[in-house]
Design goal:
With about 220 residues, the chain is α+β, with helices and mostly antiparallel strands. Helix content is about 30%, strand content about 25%. The protein contains six helices and eight strands; from the N terminus they run αααβββαβββαββα.
Length: about 220
Amino acid sequence: MARHPNSIKKLQILEKNGIKIINSGYGIANCTRENVTKLLLANNIPHPKSIVISTNDFSFSNIKIFGSHCWIKRGDFHSIQKDDVIYTHTAKAESIIQKYALRGIFTAVINEHLQGDLVKFYGVEGTNFFYWFYPTHSKFGLEKINGKAVGIPFNHFFLKKICEYTARLLNVHIYGGDCIIDKNGIIRIIDFNDWPSFTPCLYEAVPYIANFIYRYYCESV
């Protein structure tokens, strides 16, 4: 995994020179909040109602579409600290956006809050490996906002299909993320990451990851 902007640029230069990279430097860049939001919305992938804004040009009128509460996330990168992803009353949005601007964060993503079961998933694109589960905790404790999952029925095969399509779109072969399952079983992707930890399914995933890497590089020989 490499996510520092300088590292991503170096990976992209290597790719331009014909070196195969897993995951692609371009794919990693696609997974920043701003980019992934734009790409999911533009390609009709099930996703919360969202907007991308400039932190220096925030209009409160933009946020009225989200109702009383929303999620505000830094747009330029992944979550590094707790305040990079905030669940808040919309009336407090302007203050949060201003704090982002003071931190040198120039864009933010605002998502609607979805009620339902939070599901985490891991996958290796183009293989039979796909693992999902209901999380009980996280680094910043944000899962508790949706409460304990109640096991709403949903189409597991359709979730895998959505994720495979998203992985190809973003150019991220080894991936993970989060989705919300609403009371009607409708799936919406809320996060998609390049090369996550695979901690809950590490031993199951390792053979598929290794085989994918082997095949990926052998194709160029």
